[in-house]
Amino acid sequence: MRLFAVLSALSLIALGTSRILASDEPRVVVLSVGQGAAVLLQAGSTQILYDTGPDGTVLEALNRHVPAWDHNLELLILSHLHTDHIGGADEVLGRYTVNETWWNGALETNVATKAFLSVMGAASTPTLGDTASIGPFKLEVLHPPESVANMQLTHAHDGTLVLRATAASKSVLLTGDLETSHLRALTRDCDAPCPKLKADVLMLSHHGSRNATSAKLLDAVEPALAFVCVGKRNRYHHPHQETLELIEKYQIPLHRTDLHGDLVVVFRPSGIAWQRSTGPPL
Description:
With 282 residues, the chain is α/β, with parallel strands linked by helices. It contains nine helices and 17 strands.
């Protein structure tokens, strides 16, 4: 098997169901929200939310990890305007004070989404190469390569905001619903391992769809752990068998929200530590 899979396993500590302490340590919290996606980056009082899942279930999930007295999000990132990724945004904005919002700025014809965008307030539309430092996290935007603001996209996935978040010398690659052709562009002219994509934790794009994960991407990223945001018995049959077989071939531990509920990954200079948390599989 590939050498990096062995080396990655040595750097990853599974904590089982034990409680992860030291809340100031940067962590990635994958939220169980059904057939949708929501990922919280957290360190002390710093909180960044990448997507909000399909509905108000996201508030229940956030309650499991955010202190009851904390009603502030430093940054809300909406990867693209499909309901399974932004359907809970109304509830999030109603509960939390959001300091800043990122989205891709694409035009939307869905009436409900247009109504939400009208009350979202000021928001940034970052593109490839844009960076930000929020608390201990450094965020690097990897897609889209150029602005899609005020554009009517044929496929909303094509404008997905993809970013790498790094803290304590560890990183996660958040891929939203980006699909094969655009993922291929990310790895073009970049030998494996690819410095701009290398990450300890990989979000399987488009809920583990067969058209959104490739061997070349796994070679470029070299993840020690992968996760997929997916709902139980969903009508799309995500994650697809081809994706599961590829992940198994590369011997990468995989967390599925439909089977395992929430996932908490702590970033430490010595490696990543992870536990399957209290959130129910949905």
